[in-house]
Amino acid sequence: MAPSAFSKAVLCAAAAFAVSVTAQSTCDTVEERTNITVLKPLTLDYNNEQTQYWSTYSGDLKPTCILEPETDEEVAAIVSILRGNNETFAVKSGGHNPNNYFASVSGGPLISTKKLNEIIFDPDSETVRVGPGNRWDEVGEQLDATNYTVVGGRIGNVGVGGYLLGGGLSFMSTEYGWAANSLLEATVVLANSSIVTVSETSHPEILMALKGGGNNFGIVTSYLLKAYPQGDVWGGNLEFTATAENNAAILSAVRNFTENYPDNKAGIIVTVERTLASLLDIWILFLYYNGPEPPQGVFDEFLAIGPTINSCKTQRYSALLSGNNWAVVKGSVYTIGTETIPLPSAEDGPEIMGSILDHWVNVSDTAKFVPGLIASMAFQPLPKQIPTLAKSKGGDMLDLDDNVNRIIVELDYSFLFKSDYDQIDSTMRATYDGIGDIVKTHQASGALPSDVFLPLFMNDGFYPQDYFGRLRPERLQLAQTVQANVDPDGFWKTRTGGFKIPPATA
After folding, report:
1. What is the pTM assigned to this prediction?
2. How far is 96 from 52, CA to CA, in rounded Å?
3. Which of 244, 270, 252, 446 is nearest to 350 (CA)?
4. SS3 for 336?
5. How many CB atoms lie within 10 A of CB 115?
6. From CA 29, how far away is CA 17, in angstroms rounded?
7. In this structure, are residues 248 and 261 in contact, taking their beta carbons and an 8 Å threshold?
8. What does the alpha-carbon distance between residue 91 and residue 103 come to, in Å, rounded to a whole number?
């Protein structure tokens, strides 16, 4: 991989920096040698930046400074300085990932991408160049006037960077695939401080690795995304009381919706919530339709159950994303985990889906007296259409087959005090491990198919989950090969957090 002449120049300058900065902190060196904005502890801007995390625990980790580069070259300069010392660091886009040290750090510099915030629409090529410092509601709002949009997050406050590198499940995924499937090009600062542009024709192996490979290969400073025509949409929330009758009806409806997917323009997230020491048990559904009104029959099975609240309406896409921001529980410690299940048959669905719900209730009950606890589980349809579209667009790291329908289960626990983290850590593990055991039990009985590929969805993963171990061997080998080529010294592997690629075995 030959860096450009400009990148070589950056690398030479980086080497000169590195020789003289080994005894200095990154923060001091950046401040002395560059014009990059450096936010210091105890300043207003520093403190405000630390409040942008979805989890207060991540915000409580104190970086030695926050660096705010504005160009690719400034990011490269920071990386070159980091190579001259042994400080840990983190890179932050929106701060929505609650896993500590994935986008947060204590005792080292935090690289904030907030000023890498370009949003440039090209109507001729129908593409949008998006910086990682944006959030999806900002992208949607700026694109509204163009009548185009990009495949992005379902909650507006989600950051662009981590979402795309994790694959990105979208309301639009049954029309266009994973968000990463619409990634045409990326600008990346590698571990040697070189700046490369990756695409299908230039370093295609890196482009593939970025589509669900996380932060293991470099810092992406811009994404070129395919844009799609977009008018008004319909969507909002339905709320139901979690009675036994409603539980059964909603679980049946989401199973049927996934199998018979009524319209590729439709999207849904089906969540069940328990709060206030189990005094409030409710279902909240996030509905989306790419058009002013959904045709009859799309969401009828859910609506027939009789929601107590229905906020669905015709609106602009960006307004829908911003309207979903209420779901971000700020002011709490927040954890996330996941499991993937094959869709059960209509005959076996009530027992299997019901056992997953019962398991979640029983495990969350063990932590119900943790102050401020909110337990949430989401059923996210993953019908065959998504992997079919993904393959047609060149594929991604998940490399799902389209032989079966699946559901991605997202698990969330929010609570007030980080002193309770160890208990919730155990609760989270017990929750997703138990769901995995339920799947295996029903596979052994023949109620669920046993020869089905069930990878984990990175964006929803808990830090100890084995994301790369659940990929296909060929995709794992690709990640290992790309990492060996672009980061032979293990800079990203040893100096910052995230889901790590296991070493290749002989």
Report:
1. 0.94
2. 8
3. 252
4. strand
5. 15
6. 9
7. no
8. 5
The residue behind tokens 């296991």 is 502
Residue 474 φ/ψ region, left for φ over 0, alpha for ψ in the -120 to 50 degree band, beta for the rest: alpha
> Tell me, what amino acid is at 336?
I
Give me 206's structure tokens.
């890196």
In this predicted structure, what is the pLDDT of residue 342? 98
Structure tokens that stand for 407 in this block: 């559901």
DSSP state of 2: P
Buried b (16+ CB within 10 A) or exposed e, 45-74: ebeebbebbbbbbbbebbbbbbbbbbebbb
**What is the reported pLDDT for 329?**
86
Is residue 99 helix, strand or coil? coil
Pair of tokens at residue 117: 């915030």
Asked which of 104-108, 163-167, 329-333 is least confident by mean pLDDT, the reply is 329-333
Tokens of 78: 């920071």
For 28, 34, 58, the CA distances from 38, given in Å and listed in that order, are 9, 10, 20
The half-sphere exposure of 85 on its side-chain side, counting CA atoms within 13 A, is 21
Given a contact cutoff of 8 angstroms between Cβ atoms, the answer to whether 116 and 131 are in contact is yes
SS3 state of residue 310: strand
Q: In a 3-state reduction of DSSP, which class is residue 45?
A: helix
C-alpha 219 chain-centroid distance: 16
Please state, as a whole number, how many other Cβ atoms lie within 10 Å of the Cβ of residue 419: 11
Q: What Cα–Cα distance (Å) separates residue 26 from each residue in 22, 31, 41, 460?
A: 9, 8, 14, 31
Structure tokens at 304: 């027939």
Express each pLDDT in 27-40 by its tens digit: 999 999 999 999 99
pLDDT digits (tens, 9 = 90+) for 316-334: 999 999 999 999 988 999 9
Residue located via tokens 């700020």: 330
